[in-house]
Amino acid sequence: MFLHYNSRLACVFGASAGSATGADVSDRRREKHHGIFSRIGRLFRGFLGLFISGIEARNPQALMEAARQEFRDKMAQYNLALARMAGVAERLKTQIKGKTTRAQDLERRILANHRAGIWNWPAAWRANCRS
């Protein structure tokens, strides 16, 4: 449903009779043409849907096989995604283990330096890291 410009109604609502600009007119034309093409598209999709429904009704085995194949494809995608996530989880576990080991090593070094009375720890730390 399209609303068209009515000069009498425009006067009642306080607009002048000549208030429709060229842009307004072209917008309405565009909407009208767009409306026609969208209606034709819906009609085409409707006929296509009826055609496909008829084929499906005549051959339910083909429909079932297509559904099975789609299910197999989705399962393959699911398994790939699951394997990818398992790989990410293992990589994160390895990184956590390495970082934990590094933190424990640094903590042992700090405590050893503290017990030894080394207060100039940046110089001692740099010397210790080189070895």
If you had to describe this structure to a student in words, what would you say it looks like?
- Helices cover 84% and strands 0% of the residues.
- It starts with 6 loop residues before the first helix and ends with a helix.
- It has two domains: 22-58; 60-114.
- It has four helices and no strands.
- The model is unreliable at 1-5 and 8-18 (pLDDT under 50).
- By secondary structure, it is mostly helical.
What's the arrangement of secondary structure elements?
Elements: H1 7-12, H2 22-58, H3 60-116, H4 121-130
Q: What is the count of DSSP helices, taking H or I runs of 4+ residues?
A: 4
**Morphology:** elongated
Overall structural class, as computed from helix and strand content, comes to mainly alpha
Assembly of the depicted chains? single chain
Give the integer mean of the pLDDT values. Answer: 78
Element-by-element helix/strand order: HHHH
Strand content: under 5%
**First CA to last CA: what distance?**
83 Å
Biggest sheet, open or closed, and with what strands and sense?
A: none
Helix content: over 70%
Unreliable runs:
1-5, 8-18
Number of domains: 2
Question: Which keywords apply here?
Answer:
single chain; 131 residues; mainly alpha; 2 domains; 4 helices; 84% helix; 0% strand; disordered N terminus
